[in-house]
Amino acid sequence: MKNVEEEKRTARFECVLTAILKNGEKIISKGITNGKIAVKPRKLGKTYIWTNFHSRRL
């Protein structure tokens, strides 16, 4: 990925959560957000963290 142009560093994060209640009811929720694969670490407070996925929604 080091030499990949920024506009081609696209990514998608998907998450599914399932809950089964005591009465047997099943609840399923799915979330999707699109973003880009990071080029460099970003600052979080006083620390720099390396997150591979950046999205405006996260």
Written description of the protein model:
- The structure is a single chain.
- With 58 residues, the chain is mostly beta strands.
- The protein has one domain.
- 0% of the residues lie in helices and 53% in strands.
- The chain contains no helices and five strands.
- Strands 1-2-5 form a three-stranded antiparallel β-sheet, with no helix packed on it. Strands 3-4 form a two-stranded antiparallel sheet.
- Strand 3 and strand 4 (47-49) form a beta hairpin.
- The protein is elongated.
- It starts with 9 loop residues before the first strand and ends with a strand.
- Global outline: elongated
Biggest sheet architecture: 3 strands, antiparallel
Based on CA atoms alone, the radius of gyration comes out at 17 Å
How many helix segments? 0
Low-confidence stretches: none
Question: How do the helices and strands follow one another from N- to C-terminus?
Answer: EEEEE
Which strand order do you get reading across the main beta sheet?
Answer: 1-2-5
Mean pLDDT equals 83
Tell me the helix content: under 10%
Roughly what fraction of the amino acids lie in strands? over 45%
- Assembly status: single chain
* Secondary-structure-derived class: mainly beta
Strand segment tally: 5
What's the short version?
With 58 residues, this protein is an all-beta fold.
Q: Which terms summarize this structure?
A:
58 residues; mainly beta; three-stranded antiparallel beta sheet; 5 strands
Topology:
Blueprint: E1 10-20, E2 26-37, E3 42-44, E4 47-49, E5 53-54
Antiparallel strand pairs: 1-2, 2-5, 3-4
